[in-house]
């Protein structure tokens, strides 16, 4: 695919994504507690809010509340200003509080503070869910809170610790979503192993990408890169952000990405078994974003200098074009190939990285469903082109393909 054609595709997808976001705002329920929950969902995770809207109404409500309850729990865990002796019992008992509209605990900042200050509205919405959904949300919240409490009191030392922590904060989310899908009658119950991998792949990708933000956290940082990995490259994890340590920092980063890639095959297997297309898109879009983020972070010293993420236009294409397992296999294959092209033979992890990339590519090829997508990770000049689309009284001048599509949907 040529650069001009790729650019045009991204521009069309950007407009579609903006229209989708606009439509979501118009669909927020009128009841105060539900309006609050869906408004908060958009504020704490716009990308998740877009994906969740594709689910059926009943399951959408359950997943929305599930996400916000866990986000509230995570807000308590992340707030480094809360003394440990105060935080521990809150994490351990959080699953009880979701049944109590009178409970709230001020913590976090910005939108997360608003969520915690208005926890009664989230609790009110939770209490309106079917009992099957409530039981799943309660169980996962209980197990996650207990796991978070363990790691408040200990560091992530080994790779086993790293896997255990990621299980508590993300693998259990995979468990919960699989149970919610099953409770809705739309899917067979997936295995815990595959559900866990779905969460771990996303969580490890986020931990890798957010190195600089997390290491600079105020009043004190909380890091989850395992000592067993980073100690091979530095005396202190913080040392990796300094320019004089760039070579070792990148080698450590590549080791971390290689560790995350081990979950990709399980994720492909999980997604290939999904029956409902809305559930499929809900799961597949974040997983493609994760493999793309791995590809863009790999061998990239900018992870230690600032924010590294997939540009807006490519994100929009992923949202727009992910409709079948063929699209998933194609995206995983192309992003894995892009990552492979960045592997240096002298990198200490290169052999294992090639092995894991090769396993992903073989899985995708053996499906017989590959097609050319032409995903490109290079930066473009129109990253912020549509940022203020809906603030403009007149539609900006786009190519005819984009204008025709826009006129048709509006």
TrEMBL record:
GO BP annotations listed: farnesyl diphosphate metabolic process; lipid biosynthetic process
EC numbers on record: 2.5.1.21
Pathway membership, UniProt: Terpene metabolism; lanosterol biosynthesis; lanosterol from farnesyl diphosphate: step 1/3
Record GO terms (molecular function): D-glucose transmembrane transporter activity; squalene synthase [NAD(P)H] activity
Any single GO CC term annotated in Swiss-Prot or TrEMBL for this entry: endoplasmic reticulum membrane
Enzyme class: transferase
Signal peptide span: none
Domain of life: Eukaryota
Catalytic activity: 2 (2E,6E)-farnesyl diphosphate + NADPH + H(+) = squalene + 2 diphosphate + NADP(+); 2 (2E,6E)-farnesyl diphosphate + NADH + H(+) = squalene + 2 diphosphate + NAD(+)
Pfam families cross-referenced by the UniProt entry: SQS_PSY
Keywords: Transferase
Cofactor or coenzyme needed: Mg(2+)
Family: Belongs to the phytoene/squalene synthase family.
PANTHER family: FARNESYL-DIPHOSPHATE FARNESYLTRANSFERASE, SQUALENE SYNTHASE
Name of this chain's protein: Squalene synthase
């Amino acid at each position: 695919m040529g650069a001009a054609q790729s650019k045009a595709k991204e521009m069309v997808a950007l407009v579609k994504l903006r229209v989708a976001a606009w439509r979501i705002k118009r669909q927020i329920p009128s009841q105060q507690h539900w309006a609050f929950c869906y408004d908060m969902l958009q504020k704490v995770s716009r990308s998740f809010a877009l994906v969740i809207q594709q689910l059926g109404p009943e399951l959408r409500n359950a997943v929305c509340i599930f996400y916000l309850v866990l986000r509230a729990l995570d807000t308590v865990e992340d707030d480094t200003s809360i003394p440990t002796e105060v935080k521990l019992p809150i994490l351990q008992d959080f699953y009880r509080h979701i049944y109590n509209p009178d409970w709230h605990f001020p913590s976090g900042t910005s939108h997360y503070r608003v969520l915690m200050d208005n926890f009664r509205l989230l609790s009110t919405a939770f209490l309106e869910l079917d009992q099957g959904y409530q039981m799943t949300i309660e169980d996962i919240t209980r197990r996650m809170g207990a796991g978070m409490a363990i790691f408040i009191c200990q560091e992530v030392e080994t790779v086993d610790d790293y896997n255990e922590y990621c299980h508590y904060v993300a693998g259990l989310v995979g468990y919960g979503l699989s149970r919610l899908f099953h409770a809705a009658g739309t899917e067979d119950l997936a295995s815990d192993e595959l559900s866990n991998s779905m969460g771990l792949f996303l969580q490890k990708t986020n931990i890798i990408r957010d190195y600089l933000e997390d290491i600079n956290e105020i009043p004190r940082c909380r890091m989850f890169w395992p000592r067993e990995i980073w100690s091979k490259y530095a005396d202190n994890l913080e040392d990796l952000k300094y320019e004089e340590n760039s070579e070792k920092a990148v080698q450590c980063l590549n080791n971390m990405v290689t560790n995350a890639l081990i979950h990709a095959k399980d994720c492909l297997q999980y997604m290939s078994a999904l029956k409902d297309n809305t559930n499929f898109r809900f799961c597949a879009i974040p997983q493609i974003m994760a493999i793309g983020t791995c590809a863009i972070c790999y061998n990239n010293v900018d992870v230690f200098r600032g924010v590294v993420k997939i540009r807006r236009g490519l994100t929009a294409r992923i949202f727009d074009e992910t409709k079948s397992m063929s699209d998933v296999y194609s995206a995983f294959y192309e992003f894995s190939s892009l990552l492979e092209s960045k592997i240096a033979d002298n990198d200490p992890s290169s052999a294992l990285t090639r092995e894991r990339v090769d396993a992903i590519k073989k899985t995708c090829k053996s499906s017989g469903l590959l097609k050319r997508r032409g995903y490109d990770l290079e930066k473009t000049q129109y990253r912020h082109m549509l940022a203020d689309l809906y603030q403009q009284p007149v539609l900006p001048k786009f190519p005819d393909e984009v204008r025709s599509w826009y006129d048709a949907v509006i």
